[in-house]
Design brief:
single chain, alpha/beta, Aminopeptidase, 7-stranded mixed beta sheet, 6 helices, binds zinc ion
Length: about 200
């Protein structure tokens, strides 16, 4: 499913005008265990920027690639396995594990709001998400299209090479963007599940 315009960041930068994207990168005085990464934020996978900010709060390492062209933002999509923006690469060698936040299209069948769990820690992460997100009644599952198991997937490129990713459907992202209270409950639950999945020594 990779029909990206560019195969790497150098190519993207060479061809896109200044200001077509911006980067948020918070490492200083932040956790060197956990990083939250949104490689397709802003106008690409809408809502993933806001959700990543909510999960990271002020204490986890945070990286967001924000697409903000007036249109045709899709050209700014570099798939997880190829994503090699230099500030992100620098963050990856400084954190033990990564939770990457992505946005997927809604499924054709109900419920439209779904959480698809990936990364090579997906099985454990799914178990913990089912505990912590239970009260929100969201459908949490592993989707064979979004396993995120390749070693070069951005979420598996922290020091431990063990990572997690979430693909959140459009309807769910839209609701999280509108409902601040839900966003807080959701991000708390995800954070807790992530920490249970990859506990600090
Ligand atoms: Zn994505």
């Amino acid at each position: 499913m990779n029909n990206d315009t560019y195969t790497c960041f150098t190519e993207l930068k060479k061809n896109e005008t200044e200001g077509s994207f911006n980067i948020t990168c918070e490492i200083e005085n932040r956790s060197n265990v956990y990083a939250i990464i949104a490689p397709h934020g802003g106008k690409l996978e809408t809502g993933t920027t806001e959700i990543s900010l909510a999960i990271s709060r002020e204490d986890l390492s945070l990286y967001i690639f924000n697409a903000n062209k007036p249109n045709h933002n899709r050209t700014l999509h570099i798939t997880s396995a190829n994503f090699d923006e230099p500030q992100c690469e620098k963050m990856l060698v400084n954190v033990e594990t990564v939770l990457a936040i992505h946005g997927a299209r809604d499924p054709k069948v109900e419920p439209k709001e779904r959480v698809w769990v990936g990364g090579n820690l997906r099985e454990t992460f799914e178990i913990h998400l089912n505990e912590t997100l239970k009260t929100l009644g969201l459908l949490i599952e592993i989707n064979s299209n979004f396993l995120g198991k390749e070693p070069n997937n951005i979420c598996n490129r922290g020091i431990s090479q063990q990572g997690m990713q979430l693909e959140l459907t459009k309807s769910l992202r839209d609701r999280l963007k509108m409902d601040k209270e839900l966003l807080e409950q959701f991000s708390d639950a995800v954070r807790t599940a992530m920490m249970l999945t990859y506990p600090t020594a």
